[in-house]
Amino acid sequence: MTQSQEETFVKGRAGADIEIRHASHSYGPTLVVDDITFSADAGEIVTLLGPSGSGKTTLLRMIAGFVPARRGSILVGGSDVTALPVHRRNIGMVFQNYALFPHLNVRDNIAYPLARAKVRRAARPSIVAEALDAVRLPGVEERMPSQLSGGQQQRIALARAIVNRPRLVLMDEPLGALDRRLRESLQVEIVRIAREFGLTVVNVTHDQEEAFTISDKIAVLSHGKLLQYGPPEDLFRAPGSVEVADFLGESNVLHGVVELGREGHRLRRGDDLVLLTDQHVRSAGLVPGQDVVVVVRSWSARLVPLEDARTQRGRSWVRARIAAVLFTGDSRKIVLHSQQGETLSVRYTIDAEIPGVQGDEVAVQWDPSLGVVTSARTSPQEGDR
Amino acid sequence: MSGRDSGVAEVTDLAAVGIRRAGRPGIDFWTLLGTPAMLVVLVAFGVPLFMVVYKSATDPGLVNYTDVMGDPVFRKSLFKTIEIAVAATLAALLLGYPYAYVMARSGRWMRSFLLVALMVSFWTSLLIRTFAWQVLLQNTGVINTELKRLGLIDTPLPIIRNEFAALVGMTQMLAPFLILAVYALIRAIPPELEQAAMGMGARRSTMFRTVVLPLSMPGVAAGCVLVFVLALGFYITPQVLGGPSERMVGQSIAEAVHAFVRPGLACAMAVILLLLVGLVLAATARFMRLSDILKMGSMSE
């Protein structure tokens, strides 16, 4: 590689856009990745979010090339890489267990991709030093991985993943092995580095907080299917299904049958008043007699005295008894039992006053437009919104 | 002093008594439990070993050693032993490493199959395996008969009663030790290291050379030393499969006992062989922990 090529190698490249088209993979008869389609622009951080067994790791391995796509295709920078062997895909990888080469010192670890790309030996140390600067860990070239802490090792892994400016950086639960504080500071670091170098990142996690913190787009996966894809805020504000809503934050799931009352559509639930907005009725195509589920976030609901709830108009409420008030560090969680036997939870900030104590009967009240409504017995919505 | 304080003092005294009692030598529970095993080792290994060393120097005297070392036939068999042991080690490495790698990295079913295949052969008596090789290799054996039937050869191939046959047999006996040593090391390499390397632009062969090979080196070294040391003491396999002209030390020892009826001489040979093994292990101990090698050796027959 010539000098000018090396300059370009170091400075000129940025991440590529990525497109997944109808990607599928099966182990035996089970579809672990089932017809997934989405795309992300160059420089975006995409998170594949889902519980274990959702297919998110398999999808990541398909993008990397370790697992073949049985159907569908994967495009990076506009060109189809589905049939390309792993070593020619130009990707950087970060793993939960860091995957640093234990027999090589930090310099040789970070220089590994450079050596594979035939960068001149003399040019490597300065490129390595630059990468170490980028992860704010300069001067550790001579150390062995085992001499570094977990957080430091993951920074080195990050430096190694970005040193040759890959078109795609793939991260498999990168922060899973770190403690909470380290995780939070590294989340910020990952975003900063990705922006600084214009990297396209595909990240896999089951931690919704991490997904919200670092992502431009989130793909929510469950049982191999893509439930919803979009910016974190959209997902949070308008989850397309109960499953997504449930997964993206602590929430309450209320069952009931649709009926037409004086106030318009509502759930038939004893004294409880669970209103359905016109928007709900239209988008979910609700008809009286239908079994539905209303999902309300713990942070969206408030507690009010029952008599106040009965007199206020235009708000939904459910009668419940306070079972416990828990202090969870950064907030208070109030656990309640509804008359229908559901366990509900409501969140308050630490300094907020809570209208009631354990054993009190209160109304859990919320703005009907903040609830998400879906039919109870249909399969979760598929694909893009 | 308050009542509570004296209570504490009492507890402390009791603890001190307890420590003193535990510290008294000779009656510790685990020592007691280990004593029979230690006696067995002493009687079964220590005493015979001492007798061998003692006999080599007294029956009839140290002349055994000068006789042995002065005997060109013995010297030749000593060098032959080393030569065959080296060859068996290399053959075991060439066949065993790929086997170990495939076993470590294949799926559950394939791994179980390879492991069972290995263990079945490992647990079959060395004597039976040796005679099985004889059945395969001899002039009227399976291989020669089949080749003749297919018209590929007219006269039987010379694959029995020579160094080649001894080597084939010994390699088959010893390869499992090396395979298990290397397998353990490769299993300890996280597959993510291989994936990371390939993701970063290494083709499979490059990845293997730069990641798997260096990380499995301790297993290779341990396996090789183990196979070499075990090969030095082989007797039955070279006796049955090997030729009359190239003899290993084990065979020389047997001859000294049976043909020459000079047990002292045999003992001297055994001591020399033992010293050779000790030398190899001492040299190895400079580079790695000996207990790691011996741990794998404990699976030996």
From TrEMBL, chain A:
Domain ABC transporter: 18-248
Source organism (scientific name): Nocardioides agariphilus
UniProt KW keywords: ATP-binding, Nucleotide-binding, Transport
GO molecular function: ABC-type quaternary ammonium compound transporting activity; ATP binding; ATP hydrolysis activity
PANTHER family to which the protein is assigned, alphabetical: SPERMIDINE/PUTRESCINE IMPORT ATP-BINDING PROTEIN POTA, SPERMIDINE_PUTRESCINE IMPORT ATP-BINDING PROTEIN POTA
Enzyme superclass (EC): translocase
Stored Pfam families: ABC_tran (PF00005), TOBE_2 (PF08402)
Enzyme Commission code(s) on record: 7.6.2.9
Protein name in the entry: ABC-type quaternary amine transporter
Transmembrane domains' residue ranges: none
Classification via SUPFAM superfamilies: MOP-like, P-loop containing nucleoside triphosphate hydrolases
SMART domains: AAA
InterPro entries: AAA+_ATPase, ABC_SmlMolc_Importer, ABC_transporter-like_ATP-bd, ABC_transporter-like_CS, Mo/tungstate-bd_C_term_dom, P-loop_NTPase, Transp-assoc_OB_typ2
From TrEMBL, chain B:
Domain named ABC transmembrane type-1: residues: 78-284
SUPFAM superfamilies in the cross-refs: MetI-like
An example Gene Ontology CC term for this record: plasma membrane
Subcellular location: Cell membrane
UniProt cross-references to PROSITE patterns, sorted A to Z: ABC_TM1
Parts of the chain that traverse the membrane: 29-54, 78-100, 112-132, 164-186, 207-236, 256-285
Family annotation (Gene3D superfamilies): MetI-like
InterPro entries for this protein: MetI-like, MetI-like_sf
Family of this protein: Belongs to the binding-protein-dependent transport system permease family. CysTW subfamily.
Protein name from the UniProt record: ABC transporter permease
